[in-house]
Specification:
480 residues
Length: 480
């Protein structure tokens, strides 16, 4: 049976169908669109792609299925990390780490300066660890709690966390994406990082000023010092608040900084978190414990790890703030990732992605359009393959020869790939990154998207530089 090559029209049918369904889901279900409707839209579009591939393009169904399974395999690491972070959040609330972070954070941080401070903290942590995922899974959840308590809208808080986390991730030599992009483009790591300063530097400075402006002019109407004091007292009544608890996140940060992979480092955080819970919060566990003794305590700690922490203090704000986490709380996000990867696998198996990519290359006629095509393709791959690593690898390979033809240094390509693929992945609700951040923070992707200033600005600044020609280094100029 002769396999047909898909035309651009045929290739765009699944993409247009998916975008239409997702947009309609947002219109109908609003923030709840990622809790089932979007998963079904992705699954339906995957079946549509497979149907076109098998019946019209004559692709063997077993090959389509194999590609979909391979795509799911690519996402397994992200899924396992997501489940471990779910357990970590629940356990770190139980053992008092998150309440302690929130307690001292509220005491130290002024509501006016919270957003820029949040941006700086996440930038530093992510730069030191090389992981935006680890940053949001540790200090990020505490900052969400502090910000909500101070009366700041959750979209703004999450936007500051995302912006800072991704700036640090991009500029850290420990980051996997920061290492992957230059490897695909054919340049070295530190030339790549130095070249990203021209786009990431202005983007983070503008983001800082925007968050500072919001803090100065936004009226935090719900902020009441008396209510905050009551919450602090309630925290002390329910948890053993101790500075010693900061040693646990410090251990995890050191492990990641020493280049231990994120998964084992976070797993150690969960295991030690259980030990800390027994040491620091025995009274709390005893109150929750219906069995008694060590067996009852063991049962309670594990229940929190897989099903989340539930606080019943009588204060609605505090109970909502600290009742979360657990592996089960991440299952909806896991479902979203699985459906997205199946769709991406079907698009790849039918060669529809390849057809669309080749059509984009035909539009390139200058350095500016080349960078624009790189950025656009990277973003498009984030939307369709639902994985930033695939977007980085495919974009890097696809445009390498084109950059050589324009006599451009490969670091121009690696920077454009990062500005397009890495930073926008977290803005796509069904992308592994967008799903992960939304799941961990408990805030819908579309809620924080307008405030993820760094992520929105990076591709725009990259495109502006390409159009002016500034920093578009030629091959003969050598490395900066």
């Amino acid at each position: 049976m002769q396999v047909k090559k898909p035309t651009l029209f045929i290739s765009l049918i699944p993409v247009i169908t998916l975008v239409t369904l997702l947009a309609y889901n947002v219109f109908v279900f609003h923030d709840d669109s990622s809790y089932g409707p979007n998963q079904l839209a992705l699954l339906f579009t995957a079946f549509l792609t497979a149907g076109i591939g098998h019946f019209y393009l004559k692709v063997d169904y077993k090959e389509l299925e194999a590609k979909a399974i391979d795509a799911v395999g690519v996402s397994l690491q992200a899924i396992v990390i997501l489940l471990v972070v779910g357990a970590l959040i629940g356990v770190w609330i139980l053992n008092g780490v998150v309440p302690t972070m929130i307690f001292y954070g509220i005491k130290i941080i002024n509501p006016t300066l919270f957003l820029p401070v949040c941006l700086v903290i996440c930038s530093i942590v992510s730069l030191a660890t090389g992981s935006s995922w680890s940053t949001v899974g540790t200090v990020g959840i505490a900052l969400i709690g502090i910000g909500k308590t101070l009366g700041i809208p959750e979209g703004m808080i999450a936007g500051a966390i995302v912006s800072g986390s991704y700036f640090g991730d991009k500029m850290s030599p420990l980051s996997d994406t920061t290492n992957l992009a230059p490897a695909m483009a054919g340049t070295d790591l530190f030339s790549h990082i130095r070249h990203m300063v021209y786009t990431s530097g202005p983007a983070i400075i503008i983001s800082f000023l925007l968050f500072l402006g919001i803090g100065l002019f936004y009226d935090v109407g719900s902020y009441n010092p008396e209510n905050i004091d009551k919450l602090l007292v309630l925290m002390q009544d329910n948890f053993n608040i101790s500075l010693l608890l900061f040693t646990l996140p410090l251990i995890v940060f050191v492990l990641v900084y020493k280049k231990m992979p994120a998964l084992p480092a976070l797993a150690i955080g969960v295991i030690l978190g259980c030990v800390y819970a027994l040491i620091f919060q025995w009274d709390l566990i005893s109150k929750m414990n219906t069995v008694g003794g060590f067996t009852g305590a063991y049962k309670q700690v594990l229940s929190v790890a897989f099903d989340g922490f539930k606080l019943e203090s009588g204060n609605e704000v505090l109970d909502k703030l600290l009742s979360r986490g657990g592996m089960s709380g991440m299952l909806n996000t896991v479902w979203l990732i699985l459906m997205a990867m199946i769709f991406g696998g079907m698009m790849e198996a039918t060669k529809m992605l390849e057809t669309i990519a080749q059509s984009i290359l035909k539009l390139v006629s200058s350095v500016a359009t080349l960078v624009g095509a790189t950025l656009g393709t990277s973003i498009f791959l984030n939307l369709t393959t639902s994985d930033q690593y695939i977007a980085i690898v495919v974009s890097g390979r696809m445009f390498k020869n084109a950059y050589d033809e324009y006599d451009l240094d490969p670091k121009n390509l690696s920077r454009a790939v990062e500005d397009g693929a890495t930073v926008t992945s977290v803005l796509v609700p069904w992308n592994t990154c967008g799903a992960y951040f939304a799941g961990v923070m408990g805030i819908a992707t579309l809620t924080y998207l307008p405030f993820a200033f760094f992520n929105l600005l990076s591709p725009v600044i990259s495109l502006i530089l390409a159009n002016t020609g500034y920093t578009m280094v030629k091959n003969e100029q050598g490395q900066n």
